[in-house]
Amino acid sequence: MRDRIVTLIRNNIFVVWFRLLVEIYFEYLQLAKHLGAVRLKKNKRKLEADIIIRSHAIEKGLSMVKPRPGFGEKKVSDLIQLLHYYYNKFGSSNFLTLVIPILESYFEFNRNQNSFNNELWLKFEEIRGRLSLEVTDYVGGIIWIEKEDTLNSLNQGFPRVASSRYSIRDFSDQKIDMELIYKALEIARKSPSACNRQPWRVYVYRNEKKKKDLLKWQGNKGFIDNIDTVIIVSCSLNSFFINEKHQAYIDGGLYSMTLLYALHSMGLGTIPMTMAMMHSKRKDLYTHFGLQQDEVPIVMIGVGALKDKYPVAISDRKKINEYLTVFE
């Protein structure tokens, strides 16, 4: 009897609202102190994240269908200034070995396109010289992938499958058989979730107008024309309780990565696109694109056919020892 009363009290709507407000308050305090947008230039890790975002934007530009010679000069100039600031405040760091090769590739591209900005290059050379980094183990910019090599990798075990997956922005105009999407979704069914609740919902958009409207809403430009299919993964909050208010993003993230690998295993190209939007924009998902009010968006995935040869952003990763802690 006592347990039943306790359960009734805990699940009372006013009690739940109060408990939720308490949780949100402490979450607000954490976000207010540690979110990247707060005191960005005074925190080494926050500033590094900002630099990575800016440099990756340049790298993505290089992997577009037809990069415009001289693109992004203002962004590159701002990034170089930020590197100077970083060096003056925090000194040299191996983290910057992820950034320097991208800028080197950017200048090489423009040199080959007869659109070389020598003044900007000299500013880059100055900071590169000050950093005195050994970047031989890192690469940046783009590489060209052969479709045949990608398809062959799919039969060489999971490590090779995982390493051969890239985010693609230059798709073939070939149409995708919906049966391949179904097969990938079937593979993704095995994704783990908390207590096997499987809270994900999947929306597949193949109608041309709906697809174009959705991609325009998301905001990506320069590579959307040949995306054959758009997939949105969302998760229902109805599946979780007050101590699990973020579990939807965890379960949804697990499912989304499984789906990306599954689509890749079908020989399809993919590009995950952010759904991290403010409410003022996110509400369009419910009014125009079919999501239900109890769902939170996790990721948008563009799917397309592979060209015989296509460029991808290298997007080199940190070494394991840069983020690993082992307790023995």
From TrEMBL:
Its cofactor is FMN. Residues 163-217, 221-304 form the Nitroreductase domain. Pfam families: Nitroreductase. InterPro entries: Nitroreductase, Nitroreductase-like. One of its GO terms (molecular function) is oxidoreductase activity. The keyword Disulfide bond does not apply. It comes from the Bacteria. Keywords: Flavoprotein, FMN, Oxidoreductase. Belongs to the nitroreductase family. This is Nitroreductase domain-containing protein. It comes from Geofilum rubicundum JCM 15548.
